[in-house]
Amino acid sequence: MRTSFKFNQKLALLVVIAGLMIIGVFSLPPIPQDAAYHQFADKNSYCGVSNFWNVSSNLPFLLVGLLGLWDLVRGRLAILPAFRVGYLTFFIGVALVGPGSAYYHLTPDNASLLWDRLPMTIAFMALFAIVIAEYLSVPAAQRLLWPMVLIGIFSVFFWYFTELKGHGDLRPYVVVQFLPILVMPLILLFFKPTFSGTTYLWAMIGAYAGAKLAESLDEPIFRLLHVMSGHSIKHLLAALGSYYFWLGLRRRKKLASD
Question: How crowded is residue 217: how many other Cβ atoms within 10 Å of its Cβ?
């Protein structure tokens, strides 16, 4: 692990920021799932498929995930060999987002949303661990990967079972989804990369930010375009972010060590 006084200061700042975010979220009252969340602007059916665009726009996740897995098996990606399992876990998670989210959008409700969120948390946590491995410490990432993935999975089941009991609580899931998005850009800014091509990671983060914006504008975008809604565009942008990550792995080079 890279060690220096400045490195430790930056790491301590990240820990403080992450801790404050977690404390802030859990200081809130329990957050139930808004029932209106399942009411998407685009309810059109085509070819016998309900909510066609919200369903079919998940196909790119499956394609990018399978493409990443194929390239990993073929040895075509610039990765940290000691953390190969992290990259495999990420692309498996991305691939599973496709059918999981498609299943949810066929019949949107809390029961199907469970299968939408589970693979997303796997991908989030694996990506977070990859960034830790490439910018901070491979041994730390190896120790953290499975606990982080399990925490992600737990957050989804915790939300689901609290909903069944009538007092839903999204707070753990909120931390799992947004903590990596808060901390990863800071890691990219504060620490030296192992590989070239950090632009691809920034592009991925930007695509995800655009996806969240499109999601929040679901109905206005649908009124504007009449064909595709903001939620469908969210899927395409989030999948594009995964594609940027795969593209970066294909094109980047390992940098010389200090």
Answer: 18
3-state secondary structure 69-134: HHHHHHCCCCCCHHHHHHHHHHHHHHHHHHHHHHHHHHCCCHHHHHHHHHHHHHHHHHHHHHHHHH
Range 128-164 burial, b when 16+ CB lie within 10 A, else e: bbbbbbbbbbbeebbebbeebbebbbebbebbbebbe
* Dihedral sign (CA 112, 115, 121, 123): negative
Angle formed at CA 154 by CA 62 and CA 242, multiple of 5 degrees: 25
Strand partners, 49: 46
pTM of the model: 0.94
pLDDT in tens, 17-70: 999 999 999 999 999 999 899 999 999 999 889 999 999 999 999 999 999 999
Report how far residue 34's alpha carbon sits from residue 43's, in angstroms, rounded to the nearest whole number.
Answer: 18
Of the candidates 257, 217, 256, the residue with the CA atom closest to the CA atom of residue 237: 217
Instruction: Give, in words, the CATH class of 59-251.
Output: mainly alpha
Q: What is the DSSP letter of 256?
A: P
Instruction: Supply the pLDDT for residue 146.
Output: 98
User: Which of 125, 135, 122, 138 shows the shortest CA–CA distance to 81?
Assistant: 138
